[in-house]
Amino acid sequence: MSSSSVIYGAYAPQTSVVGCARLWAQLRTWLPVLVCTMVFAIESTPYLGSDRTSAPLRRLAEILFGNGVDAHWVSIHHLIRKTGHFMGYGIFSLVCFRAFWITLQSVAFHLPRQLQSHGLAILATFLIASADEYHQSFLPNRTGQFSDVLLDCCGAAAMCFVLFVGMQITEDRRQARAKAGCRLKPAYADLTA
Question: Looking at the domain assignment, is residue 23 inside a domain?
């Protein structure tokens, strides 16, 4: 009995260990996306409508800038909320990019992985922003506006563009260093020989 467990144990598939490791890796990859989505869901409640955020934000603005904000508060509050949309969904697109970048690591497609990840991140941002605005259209003190979806997608596209340019610059520098290293190695090899 002990010999059979040794023989069969050596050939038994390790699915529980491999499956657990794969599940943990997927969880680490997609958990930030889930957390951001939950933040949007919490933010998309009647308790965080503009009628509820105006007073606390106004007090904060008065502390930082003085009482001069009173005359233009409606415009300032609107700008704060729209900037929050732009930045929040821009950050969400970066989190989605990271998840798609990791997930598409071993998948071969015709498009480069970087472009796929950017495209999928912007698409995910569009879908979550649309669902958020659709949900807000049913709330009494919120409005669902397609212009907010467009603003959210602009934030996503802007952040993805900045990331794309940054990745291209980093890759160009890495390739330049690799070329410089190749040019220096033969000269260095001749000096030591």
Answer: no
Give the pLDDT of residue 186.
52
**Domain ranges, residue 68:** 33-192
The angle that helices 73-103 and 146-192 make with each other, rounded to 10 degrees, is: 50
Structural domains counted in the chain = 1
Instruction: Determine, yes or no, domain membership for 25.
Output: no
Span 117-139, average pLDDT: 96
Q: What is the pTM of this model?
A: 0.79
- Who wins on pLDDT, 160 or 9? 160
Closest listed residue to residue 116, CA positions, set 126, 106, 104? 104
Tell me the three state secondary structure of residue 193: coil
Q: What is the mean pLDDT of residues 140-158?
A: 95
Domain-embedded: residue 148: yes
| Residue 121 · residue 100 · CB < 8 Å | yes
DSSP codes joined into one string, 37-106 = HHHHHHHTSGGGSHHHHHHHHHHHHHHHH-GGGGGGHHHHHHHHHHHHHHHHHHHHHHHHHHHHHHHGGG
Q: Residue 193: is its pLDDT beyond 60?
A: no
